C-alpha cells in the first residue's frame, strides 16, 4: 500500500519494521546481533489501532506465528552471539503459565542465553494476569527475566495496574515501559510528563518513546519528528532524569532503531506541506547495533498536521 504526495511514493508497509525481512527461523526475528525476537502468540487482551504488527495478526498465512518452535530453538542454540531473547506477540502473556514454563525449560538449555525480555500490554489491559505464581516462575529462571510494559497515557495508570507493577517490582523483576507518540492522544509534554513520572515513581523505567511506524491505517496518529523533538526537549525539565525515555524510530525494512534526538545522525534536509499534510526528508545514519552494515538513508516522514510544523 502506498500514498503519492509531494511527488513521492510514501509506503505504508505491511511489514513496517522488517519482522519478516529479518526472519531467521519460523517465528524468530534476528535484527540485532546480540538479541532476537520470538513471536510467541498472535493473541492480545486488546488490539490497538496503532499496532505496527496488526497486518501480521490478521495474516491468514500466519507468517510470523505459524509452525512449531523447534526451528527457532535450534537457531538460538546455534548462534552463540545471541545473549537475549525478546518474547513478543500479539502478547506473550496471552499464553498460560504452563506454556511459558515449558518454553523457559527449553530456553534454559541454551547456555549462552543470559536474559529474556517479555514485552506485554497486560499490565495496562489485564493487570490481573500479573499473578504471584507468574512472578515466582519468572524469578526462578537461570537467566534474567525483565518485563517491558506498554503504557501510552496516564489514564492507563489505574490503581490495579500500579499495584500489579509494584508487586512484580517488589519480587525483584526489572520493569521497563515503552510508549508510542500518538497525535491527539499524548502528543504534549504535559501528558507525557505525568505518564513518565508516574511510571518511574512506581518502579517502572520509561525506556522508549516510539515515533509511529509506517503501518496501514495509522496515518492520522502521526506527528512530525520535529514536533516530537520539541516535546522531548520540554520534558527534560519536567521529569526526573531516569524517567526520560529515548525518542526513537524503527527504520522501515528492519534497519533498527535510531535516536531521533541525535541531530547529527538524524538531520532534516527538506520540509514541505500540501493539503494539510506535512512532510520532511531526513538524512539518517542507520544504527550500528543492527546486523546490517551502517549506512546512510533518506527517510520521508509524513504527518497530517498543520503547516506550522513544516520548514522549521
Defining key terms:
TIM Barrel, 15 strands, 27% strand, alpha/beta, disordered N terminus, 8 helices, ten-stranded mixed beta sheet, three-stranded antiparallel beta sheet, 312 residues, disordered C terminus
Account of the protein in words:
The longest helix is centred in the middle third of the chain and has 13 residues, at 189-201. By secondary structure, the chain is of the alpha/beta class. The strands form 3 sheets. Strands 3-4-5-6-7-8-9-10-11-12 form a 10-stranded mixed beta sheet. The chain has a 3-stranded antiparallel beta sheet with strand order 13-14-15, with no helix packed on it. Residues 1-8 and 307-312 have low confidence and may be disordered. α7 crosses α8 (225-235). The protein contains 8 helices and 15 strands. It is globular and about 55 Å long. The protein has a single domain (16-264), classed as Aldolase class I (TIM Barrel, Alpha-Beta Barrel).
- Approximate shape: globular
Mean pLDDT over all positions = 86
Radius of gyration: 19 Å
Largest sheet composition = 10 strands, mixed
Give the topology string: H per helix, E per strand: EEEEEHHEHEHHEHEHEHEEEEE
The helix count comes to 8
State the separation between the terminal residues, measured CA to CA.
Answer: 29 Å
Beta-strand percentage? Answer: 25-35%
Strand sequence of the main sheet, in spatial order? Answer: 3-4-5-6-7-8-9-10-11-12
> What do we call the CATH topology?
TIM Barrel
Helix content: 10-25%
Task: Please give the CATH architecture.
Answer: Alpha-Beta Barrel
Which segments are poorly predicted (pLDDT under 50) over 5 or more consecutive residues? 1-8, 307-312
CATH level-four homologous superfamily name: Aldolase class I
Amino acid at each position: 500500500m502506498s500514498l503519492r504526495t509531494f511527488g513521492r511514493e510514501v509506503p505504508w508497509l505491511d511489514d513496517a519494521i522488517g519482522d519478516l525481512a529479518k526472519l531467521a527461523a519460523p517465528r524468530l526475528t534476528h535484527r540485532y546481533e546480540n538479541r532476537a525476537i520470538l513471536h510467541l502468540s498472535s493473541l492480545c487482551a486488546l488490539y490497538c489501532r496503532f499496532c505496527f504488527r496488526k497486518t501480521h495478526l490478521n495474516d491468514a498465512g500466519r507468517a510470523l506465528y505459524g509452525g512449531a518452535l523447534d526451528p527457532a530453538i535450534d537457531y538460538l542454540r546455534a548462534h552463540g552471539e545471541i545473549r537475549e531473547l525478546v518474547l513478543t506477540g500479539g502478547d506473550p502473556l496471552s499464553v498460560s503459565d504452563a506454556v511459558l514454563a515449558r518454553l523457559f525449560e527449553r530456553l534454559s538449555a541454551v547456555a549462552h542465553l543470559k536474559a529474556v525480555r517479555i514485552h506485554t500490554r497486560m499490565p495496562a489491559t489485564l493487570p490481573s494476569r500479573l499473578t504471584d505464581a507468574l512472578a515466582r516462575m519468572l524469578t526462578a529462571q537461570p537467566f534474567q527475566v525483565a518485563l517491558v510494559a506498554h503504557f501510552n497515557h496516564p489514564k492507563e495508570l489505574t490503581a490495579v495496574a500500579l499495584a500489579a507493577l509494584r508487586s512484580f517490582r517488589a519480587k525483584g523483576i526489572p520493569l521497563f515501559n515503552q510508549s508510542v507518540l500518538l497525535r491527539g492522544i499524548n502528543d504534549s509534554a504535559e501528558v507525557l510528563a505525568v505518564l513518565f513520572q508516574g511510571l518511574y515513581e512506581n518502579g517502572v523505567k520509561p525506556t522508549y518513546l516510539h515515533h509511529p511506524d509506517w503501518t496501514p491505517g495509522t496515518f492520522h496518529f502521526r506527528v512530525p519528528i520535529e514536533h516530537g523533538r520539541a516535546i522531548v526537549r520540554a520534558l527534560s525539565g519536567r521529569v526526573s532524569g531516569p524517567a526520560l525515555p529515548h525518542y526513537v524510530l524503527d527504520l522501515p525494512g528492519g534497519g533498527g532503531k535510531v535516536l531521533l534526538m541525535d541531530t547529527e545522525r538524524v538531520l532534516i534536509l527538506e520540509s514541505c506541506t500540501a493539503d494539510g499534510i506535512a512532510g520532511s526528508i531526513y538524512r539518517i545514519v542507520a544504527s550500528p547495533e543492527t546486523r546490517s552494515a551502517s549506512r546512510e538513508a533518506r527517510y520521508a516522514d509524513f504527518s497530517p498536521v498543520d503547516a506550522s510544523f513544516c520548514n522549521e
